[in-house]
Amino acid sequence: MTKSTEKVLVVGDWVIDENWVIAGFESDTSSHIGTDHFRSAINSPRAQTLGLCGAGNVARSLHGLHQKEVENNEHVKAAIQVYGLGLWHYGDTKLIASLFSNDIMANETPLTLAGIHPTGESDETTRYSLCGKPMGAGICRSQSEGGQCPNEGDNKCSYLTTLIDETSRKTCVTVRAIRMYYASAGMEPRLKYRMDWELSRPETPTDEEIEPVVKSLPPDINHIVVSDHHHGCVTDCLTTRLKEKYPDAFWYIRTKNMDVSWVDSIEAEKLRLRMIGADYVPNRSKAKRWFHGKEISNKAIVELLDLGRFDNVPKGTERWIISLHDDNSMLALHKRPDSKRINAIALVDDSARSAINVGRTSIVFASCVASLLHCYSEKSDEVILSRASRQGHLWSKSYVGSVKSNGSTAREYPRLVGDHANAIKPPEGRQDQAPIPTTAVLGDIEEIQNKWSDAFADYGIVNGQFHIWRGYTSIDGYIAIRNRVRDNLDDLYQAVRRFLDTSRGDSSLNCLLLGDPGFGKTFLVRQLAKALRLTPLFFNLAHLTSLDQVIDCFDAISSLQNQRETQPILVFFDEVDAEISSQETYSLFLSPMTDGTYRRGSHVFRLAPCVWMFAGVHIRTTGSRSKGRDFVSRINGPTVHLNCTKRETDDPERKTEQVYWGVKLLRQTFYDVSKISEDVLEFFYDLKLLGGPRSLRTVVRGFRNIQYGEVRNKNLPDFEDVRKLLVPPLVEKENYEARLKRSDPDPLVDIVEDPPASFDSAD
Fold first, then answer.
1. What is the CB-side half-sphere exposure of residue 200 using CA atoms within 13 A?
2. What is the pLDDT of residues 221-266, one digit of tens each?
């Protein structure tokens, strides 16, 4: 039965992927080998290295649902005809078209330099080129031998269009990404080198040059899929012309750069999908924390609503925004055309992260597009995400398998890039080729936001419960409600994580915590080290009696680094503003922070790059002999201010933050506490303390006679036990004692310390 066909134009940055597997090499005869010498580990004369990346990867994956490929697949309800538009050298058009097949290309092997021919004969199962006709029958070749090809000359393919042709005055090259994977026995292959072969960024095509190109495109495109890697193809001018030519087409967008004006110009009812890749979420997103267990964070909601432009979605319009994370999780907001509600759906993939994730985001994106084009029989929200995740997993698995095979099994992996043609088709046979990820509908986004609003206001009560975990920042266990502090801690967490992800580089990361004693600086560092699996080393300068003891601290750091060469170290110096023997210590840290060296006597010793965390109340930067200014200038990481400013003394956010700390400290001090009265929450809210969480801990330890896991007014500490901790004017003793005698209203508020731990099932 012939299936209906959706016509799709894939627009964006088309990149040729070239993949090589290398192994170490020691030669007695070779010279001029540089610092490293490798040899190719590809050992099959039929091995191939070329593939498609970027928009090309998306297009080729969608092409796997071509009419000829899916006629007998009962899981596929509609087919896709792919057209492509991008920037590449006009002479490469036919070669790019031939890459839509998995057939072996004649002469493109490690054994010959005779030149690349787009197609060759193959004894494999028939595959179909971009124009949908069998490879090996003269398709996409200038010397056509049988069959009819829609090509127009040697270098043309009517399904692919480059914005720059041979008559243009502009210079345009086909961008190539050349990757070398290092293979060693018994270990997963890993990407060792990547080289992007591209000249200077091409001039943006003018409106006069774009107009005839767009006019030459097919007239009946239904859907426009954009994969923009910010190489200069997708512009306001191009999108304007496409909107004029295809006013009824739906748009599906994935952009590397979020700040592009052309996205906002797409009519609200035509933007159906926007995807955020795993490259954006950890590095450029404002929401550093996206999940608390199975709950979505407040910042993630705000960011997704903004990027998805849900504020202007007309009635009857469908809209998706999907974020893909590097831990295989996904988060999506979806507005159905028959509802005003925006639902949040989360997915957690517990499968081990693949050693190679190249192209995974493109596969997930293509799979989601295919689902929204109604290509599959099953299309519920949970299934759409689950299918996309599984197909991304299978793609990565195929990619790793092709690299590990070193090209020796050309029948299974004819190119070292995985199987594009079947990348997003549901399997016809076995269904267990990839783990089934767990999805859950978290609910209406407005209801979720209301819970966060309740949690960050007044006493923090949410539907009769107090959720301690809602007060946690990017650093688990450390509470902050004030936006200023939460943003500072987000920056700190992200800076340390980025430092670790870049193999710690050639220099250390130096960060500064400022705050009065008792504001949890040491606790914060412990939680940060725990969250990022750093080995912490703690020192307090106020406990040292001579400057030589600071050098002893450096010796201890060096010793620990030698013992744990592969484990990153976090070094914490508390009270760095303290003087030792009436002398500042800043000058002792200048060289270790920047050069990684320190001096003992006449000898110089070296320290490996690490995370330096300094804490103090105030760094003095004035005075002719002070090195405080030099010290501060070497802080290349975030400076976090934890103090409560005078302006924040009566700030509602700070008072709510104190409630969270109070309940958390109650749970730590009296482990069986599970319920608390609203009056006690009010007590924490109104309390004015001389200090931070440390003073509050003293107050909590004064609570008396707690029974049955319930905390009430009668359990509050005696007035005389807390009066010295209070900010004048003191609370009148009579009022305080009247609170002790006041009975608490029922029911009590349940205390919930941890978020739901996992996505057990789809709701």
1. 4
2. 999 999 998 888 898 999 999 999 999 999 999 998 877 888 888 8
Provide the token pair at 6.
């959706």
DSSP-derived 3-state class of residue 380: coil
**Identity of the amino acid at 666:** L
Q: Of 95, 97, 102, 100, whose CA–CA distance to 125 is shortest?
A: 102
503 CB neighbour count, 10 Å cutoff: 9
Q: What length is written for the chain?
A: 763
* Neighbour order of strands in the sheet with 78-86: 160-162, 78-86, 4-12, 223-228, 250-255, 271-276, 319-324, 330-335, 342-348, 438-444
Q: Answer whether the bond into residue 609 is a cis peptide, omega within 30°.
A: no
pLDDT higher than threshold 50 for residue 763: no
Q: Which string of DSSP letters, residue by residue, matches 727-741? A: PSSPPPHHHHHHHHH
Residue 354 per-residue DSSP state: P
Beta carbons of 91 and 450 less than 8 angstroms apart: no
Instruction: Give the span between the Cα atoms of 338 and 240, in whole angstroms.
Output: 29
- Give Cβ neighbours of residue 265 (< 8 Å, ≥ 6 apart): 236, 239, 240, 243
550-573 pLDDT, tens digit per residue, is 999 999 999 998 888 778 899 999
Indicate the pLDDT class of residue 445, thresholds 50, 70 and 90: very high
DSSP 755: -
Could you report how far apart the first and last alpha carbons of the chain are, in Å?
36
CA distances from 98 to 62, 155, 162, 421 (A): 15, 11, 15, 12
Residue 550's closest CA among 573, 567, 531, 569? 573
Q: Which of 204, 214, 273, 274 is nearest to 239 (CA)?
A: 214
State yes or no: pLDDT of 38 exceeds 50. Answer: yes
What is the amino acid identity at position 714? K
| pTM for this prediction | 0.85
Helices 548-563 and 586-594: angle between axes, nearest 10 degrees: 30
Whether the Cβ atoms of residue 363 and residue 60 lie closer than 8 Å to each other: no
Q: Is 524 helix (H, G, I), strand (E, B) or coil?
A: helix
**Amino acid letter for position 166:** E
CA distances from 590 to 571, 631, 706 (A): 15, 6, 51
pLDDT above 60 (res 137): no
Which pLDDT belongs to residue 148?
42
483-491 own/partner pairs: CB under 8 Å, 24+ apart: 483/653, 484/641, 485/640, 485/641, 485/642, 488/638, 488/639, 488/640, 488/641, 489/524, 489/640, 490/288, 490/289, 491/638, 491/640
The closest alpha carbon to 20, from 43, 53, 37, 2, belongs to 43
What single string gives the DSSP state of each residue in 269-323? TTEEEEEE-TTTTTTT-S-S--EETTEEPHHHHHHHHHHTTGGGPPTT--EEEEE
pLDDT value of residue 762: 37
Q: Is the pLDDT of residue 394 over 90?
A: no
- 400 φ/ψ angles, rounded to the nearest 5 degrees: -60, -40
Q: At what angle do helices 55-63 and 360-372 cross, to 10 degrees?
A: 50
Q: Dihedral sign for Cα 117, 121, 122, 128, please.
A: positive
Look at strands 223-228 and 250-255 and give their pairing.
Answer: parallel
